[in-house]
Amino acid sequence: MRTFDDMLSKQLQDEEFKKEYDAIQPEMDVIRAIVDARTSQNMTQKELAERTGINQADISKLENGTRNPSVNLLKRLADAEMVLVRGSKDNVKPTQND
Hints:
By secondary structure, the chain is mainly alpha-helical. It has a domain at 29-87: lambda repressor-like DNA-binding domains (434 Repressor (Amino-terminal Domain), Orthogonal Bundle), CATH 1.10.260.40. It contains 5 helices and 2 strands; from the N terminus they run H-H-H-H-H-E-E. It has helices at residues 4-11, 15-40, 45-52, 56-63, 71-79, and strands spanning 84-86, 93-95. The protein has a two-stranded antiparallel sheet. The longest helix is centred in the first third of the chain and has 26 residues, at 15-40. Residues 34-80 form the HTH cro/C1-type domain.
């Protein structure tokens, strides 16, 4: 049975696929940081929705990659003291407000 990583590795050998994959990585890094911050606080999507005023369905879409994170959405997350995203485009990390 092939793993996701095996399939991705094979797909990344295709130059056009790799170009598109690399183009979306910054967005995926931000999404991953948001998910990591939420789960590190043992928070459900519903709890995050209540804390931020963002619809739970929109949080789900964001986390599964069917909605792009807008600046407004990121601001609402930061205003709720849920997450600050710091780092270069190659090193995005979730951090909690102290």
